Sequence to fold (190 residues):
Amino acid sequence: MADDEAAKSLSALLNGIAQKVYYNNTEVTEEQLRGELYPELPPEEFRALHERMAGLLKSIATADMDHAQLEAFLTAQTKRQGGGGVTAEQAAALSRFWKSQRARVRESLLARSRWEPGLRGLSWRVDLQTAASRGDAGHSGPVALVELELGRAGQDSEFVCLEFDEAKVNHVLKKMADIQKSIDGFVHRA
Fold:
């Protein structure tokens, strides 16, 4: 019976950590979790358990581990010597938690990583404008027309229309190449 209670307390702790970290429930606090789930545990020991479980959940969630990856990760954690590993019971609780909460945690992480407003759509075309159609005897040439569909979750889209001549298109392409070069440099350093 004691093992059953320990498993329930650990499952509740994992759910509490998820509520606080991934589901933005500000009512859940570390002190509240300790008081409700582990009142007999000294604060330092609870803090260590809390930090270890939060760290393991972060590793699992960041990697969005599938079943095989999760099992391999938890097996490695149970074999660790010292205070950084987990017991077989803790590994089982982590596995049960992740199987039931993976989709929800993943959606929470994705929602946090989205910029608002987001780009919902993009359409473009190139028009060839002649001097006669512009009323400008000195300029004729291609013009790129770009329409961006922007929106926030749960709201109607807004549309922005941009017009670029050849020089502006080349400038945008150069800036995008610079961005790609920066990203590549960062990825290769990491």
Remarks:
- The first strand starts at residue 118 and ends at 129.
- The chain has seven helices and three strands.
- The chain has a mean pLDDT of 89.
